[in-house]
Amino acid sequence: MTAQDPFAAFKAVQKEAWSLFTPMEVFTTPTAARLVGFAGVAAGQRLLDVGCGTGVVAITAARRGAKVRGLDLSPVLIERAREHAQLLNLDVDFKDGDAESLPYGDNEFDVVLSQFGHMFAPRPDVAIGEMLRVLKPGGTIAFSTWPPHLYVGRMFALIGRHLPPPEGVASPVLWGDPKIVAERLAGKTKDLSFEMDMMTPSALSPQHFRRTMEATIGPLIKLVAQYKDEPDKLKSFRAEFEALISEYFDAGHNVMRQQFLMSKARKV
Questions:
Q1: Residue 115: in which H helix or E strand, if any?
Q2: What does the radius of gyration of the chain's CA atoms come to, in whole angstroms?
Q3: What would the pLDDT profile of 52-64 be if each residue is shown by its tens digit?
Q4: CA of 206: how far to CAs of 84, 210, 211, in Å?
Q5: What DSSP line would sit under 23-57, residue for residue?
Q6: Cβ–Cβ under 8 Å, residues 119 and 146
Q7: 3-state secondary structure at position 243
Q8: N or C terminus of the chain with fewer C-beta within 10 Å?
Q9: How do residues 29-72 score in pLDDT, each as one tens digit?
Q10: Backbone φ and ψ of 30, nearest 5°
């Protein structure tokens, strides 16, 4: 981020709010393996994990023998990622930074991945431009995102009705629409393909899951804080949120059913 970044304040809020995301790595670890497999990561490849969070994708790729770097806006999550790497004696270069201004050279990586990360950058064209800039021609870009018409996409839409983003900030869930992905990658990539998969976080009830989400998901943390002195508004939001969760809660197995989209292409 620089002083000229029009979204510097927005990113500062994101950096603080997402610092509490660590407990969710229990759920994102299995899906990390699916993304790494979907991308066809192989030993010896130079790989960048954008919006790496606690490093679950980066660590999974490094275990395959890839030469990995990871970047995230939150220094707290980067520290957790370093702990994971140290536990396995893996040499992974993690640093805090901005997906819209990647601190790497042109054509530096064979693979660029992002699991539910780059989608939160406020300017999709800037973020994807940076990810493709550091990817070598013929290299693979792949990412996991949330479709707008399913649970997580609808959750972010609900949050947005109560807490509208700053003007100019694109909705993150548009990255979950294959048509939008195709438009954003048009002319820059080839061999675009998609695959749907499922995350199944455990939960005792919609109420329990709502509580977990409010404690770990950045925009929800901010929204609950905004309503701390307005109990009626908070109660109304929670009723809406729990009704949404209930549509995807599998009471017979104590899990949520959260479908996500994986996209993959090669840089031209």
A1: strand 109-115
A2: 18
A3: 999 999 999 999 9
A4: 31, 6, 9
A5: GGHHHHHHHHHHHHHHHT--TT-EEEEET-TTSHH
A6: yes
A7: helix
A8: C
A9: 999 999 999 999 999 999 999 999 999 999 999 999 999 999 99
A10: -60, -40
